[in-house]
């Protein structure tokens, strides 16, 4: 299977889906939804040039530190963290690159995710400024904020409908610009949701990504997921997100167990290490 990928007999998309499945990720569980990488960093050009390495995100770094400026903050946070009770290990990120709220965030315009989002927000849509309303703005926010570390979901590579408000949901308007949140705003180089998906998928299968995808796989599924390699790569997440970090069966206090389960479901989970 790995050999097939190396020989380019299966696509990068199929390989990522297989890895997600092997690591226990599934479309049936929002808390362990398949995780895909951000692969581009050019969301502003009129044309997307896939022969130019500068349009791609650095796949060897966690999304939280793709912007060099954030690396210092993230490292300091880790170095200065001390849990007086000694339960919580040091971590770089208190949030996670994949969690239920993140999946609903992306898929808010399509059911059943719309309803699930409304349930999560106590019966209404979250305020418009926090909605997924623009791909370029979302990338900019990731670059500016080391606490936002959302990676992508597979839909970004095959499902144009999630970028359109086909059901006409009232998602509110942005506070400052008063702009109504409707269809997702696309990069300038994409002329329609279909065009975005087509070019984005092409980017995923490009020469550059084929040559560097293994670096991202190491971070998410491989040896840089935990231990000293993870520390070095600025890739350590809150302790609850790791498989086997908490023995739920050993917790006799029902309340404590429920709280931890809720935390694991909401904070996100690191895939099983492959």
Automatic annotation (TrEMBL):
<dbReference type="InterPro" id="IPR000409">
    <property type="entry name" value="BEACH_dom"/>
</dbReference>
<dbReference type="InterPro" id="IPR036372">
    <property type="entry name" value="BEACH_dom_sf"/>
</dbReference>
<dbReference type="InterPro" id="IPR050865">
    <property type="entry name" value="BEACH_Domain"/>
</dbReference>
<dbReference type="Pfam" id="PF02138">
    <property type="entry name" value="Beach"/>
</dbReference>
<dbReference type="GO" id="GO:0019901">
    <property type="term" value="F:protein kinase binding"/>
</dbReference>
<dbReference type="GO" id="GO:0008104">
    <property type="term" value="P:intracellular protein localization"/>
</dbReference>
<dbReference type="GO" id="GO:0005829">
    <property type="term" value="C:cytosol"/>
</dbReference>
<dbReference type="GO" id="GO:0016020">
    <property type="term" value="C:membrane"/>
</dbReference>
<keyword id="KW-0677">Repeat</keyword>
<protein>
    <submittedName>
        <fullName>Neurobeachin-like 1</fullName>
    </submittedName>
</protein>
<feature type="domain" description="BEACH">
    <location>
        <begin position="1"/>
        <end position="274"/>
    </location>
</feature>
<keyword id="KW-0853">WD repeat</keyword>
């Amino acid at each position: 299977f790995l050999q097939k990928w190396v020989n380019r007999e299966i696509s990068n998309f199929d390989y990522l889906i297989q890895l997600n499945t092997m690591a226990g990720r599934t479309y049936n569980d929002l808390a362990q939804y398949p995780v895909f990488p951000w692969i581009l960093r050019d969301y502003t050009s009129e044309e997307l040039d896939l022969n130019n390495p500068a349009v791609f995100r650095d796949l060897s770094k966690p999304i939280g530190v793709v912007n060099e400026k954030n690396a210092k903050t993230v490292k300091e946070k880790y170095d200065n963290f001390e849990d007086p009770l000694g339960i919580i290990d040091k971590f770089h990120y208190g949030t996670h690159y994949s969690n239920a709220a993140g999946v609903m965030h992306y898929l808010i315009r399509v059911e059943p995710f719309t309803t699930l989002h409304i349930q999560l927000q106590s019966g209404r849509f979250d305020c418009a400024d926090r909605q997924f309303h623009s791909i370029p703005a979302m990338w900019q926010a990731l670059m500016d904020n080391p606490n936002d570390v959302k990676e992508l979901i597979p839909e970004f590579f095959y499902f144009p409908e999630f970028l359109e408000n086909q059901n006409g949901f009232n998602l509110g308007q942005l506070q400052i610009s008063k702009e109504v949140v409707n269809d997702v705003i696309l990069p300038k180089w994409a002329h329609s949701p279909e065009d975005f998906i087509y070019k984005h998928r092409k980017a995923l299968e490009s020469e550059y990504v084929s040559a560097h995808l293994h670096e991202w796989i190491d971070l998410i599924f491989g040896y840089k997921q935990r231990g000293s390699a993870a520390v070095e790569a600025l890739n350590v997440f809150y302790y609850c997100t790791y498989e086997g970090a908490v023995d739920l069966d050993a917790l006799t206090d029902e309340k404590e167990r429920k709280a931890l389960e809720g935390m694991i479901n909401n904070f996100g989970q690191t895939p099983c290490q492959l």
